[in-house]
Specification:
Radius of gyration: 19 Å
Number of strands: 9
Pfam family, one: Guanylate_kin
Largest sheet: 5 strands, parallel
GO cellular component, one term: cytosol
Number of domains: 1
Bound molecules: adenosine-5'-triphosphate, the ligand Nc1nc2c(ncn2[C@@H]2O[C@H](COP(=O)(O)O)[C@@H](O)[C@H]2O)c(=O)[nH]1
EC number: 2.7.4.8
InterPro entries: GK/Ca_channel_bsu, Guanylate_kin-like_dom, Guanylate_kinase, Guanylate_kinase_CS, P-loop_NTPase
Strand content: 15-25%
Structural class: alpha/beta
Distance between the termini: 30 Å
CATH superfamily: P-loop containing nucleotide triphosphate hydrolases
Strand order of the largest sheet: 2-7-1-8-9
CATH topology: Rossmann fold
Helix content: 25-40%
Family: Belongs to the guanylate kinase family.
Length: 218
């Protein structure tokens, strides 16, 4: 231990935050999310429900909860989704239960959702717990190269996603942070820096007043 280190037990408990990543399809959210989660035990992924069919290699309950349109409609009706939207012709939504449980336990939650979902989260009581990051590709040609290179979708799906890219990007001004994912290592380091700083914000330090009073013997 260096002379500047302090035991974790001296830290006041913290409010969990909702860390949202949005981008046009193919800019790199999933890639960055996976890497962010790997090295950070305090943040957990919100696994969305979707009516989209699984891509090869995608695992139910890990990448998404793959559900039928009827099941999705039931989830909407029963208020089981924190937000939901139709994206590229399929429905996607955030199951409410796991997010609320994680936040309650003081964990942060990572969301890979589009601008419609982000707007909906912004309307909830949890808006002050929201940290919104928009990820831009270096340019549209590179975005198309990435969608092609990923090779998970047929060409008509890629064309459809490229056609929506400008509209998605037009929502950049609704986000707190804008990153350009030209270099994944750099972008990941920027995401980690944002998360670190946001965790230290005064409003997230529960019991801070008591902690300081205790320190000052008041
Ligand atoms: N900085 C980068 N440089 C080059 N390729 C990248 C970079 N970041 C991600 N990629 C690649 O781009 C492709 C798309 O990335 P990814 O699937 O993470 O995008 P996404 O934003 O999650 O897309 P979607 O919204 O469709 O889920 C993948 O093949 C990934 O390996
Ligand atoms: N509003 C929401 N958008 C979501 C959710 N889960 C994923 N998404 C967005 O959908 C597109 C397409 O995803 P893909 O896996 O089919 O490539 C992408 O922009 C995601 O961010 C959600 O729960 N709510």
């Amino acid at each position: 231990m260096t002379e500047f280190a302090r035991p974790a037990s001296h830290r006041p408990p913290r409010r969990g935050l909702m860390f949202v990543l949005s981008s046009p399809s193919g800019a790199g959210k999933t890639t960055l999310s996976r890497r962010l989660l790997e090295g950070d035990g305090d943040i957990t992924l919100s696994v969305s429900a979707t009516t989209r069919p699984p891509r090869p290699g995608e695992v139910d309950g890990k990448d998404y909860w793959f559900v039928s349109p009827d099941r999705f409609a039931d989830m909407v009706r029963d208020d089981q989704l924190l937000e939901w939207a139709t994206v590229f012709g399929h429905r996607y939504g955030t199951p409410r239960g796991p997010v609320e449980a994680a936040l309650h336990e003081g964990h942060d939650v990572l969301f890979d959702i589009d601008w419609q979902g982000t707007q909906q989260l912004q309307q909830t009581d949890a808006a002050s717990d929201l940290v919104r990051v928009f990820i831009l590709p270096p340019d549209l040609a590179e975005l198309e190269r990435r969608l092609m290179g990923r090779a998970t979708d047929p060409i008509d799906v890629i064309t459809g996603r490229m056609a929506r890219a400008r509209d998605e990007i037009s929502h950049w001004g609704e986000y707190d942070y804008i990153l350009v994912n030209d270099n994944a290592d750099l972008c990941l380091a920027e995401l980690r820096a944002i998360l670190k700083a946001e965790r230290l914000r005064r409003k997230r330090q529960l019991g801070l007043a008591d902690f300081v009073r205790g320190m000052l013997g008041q």
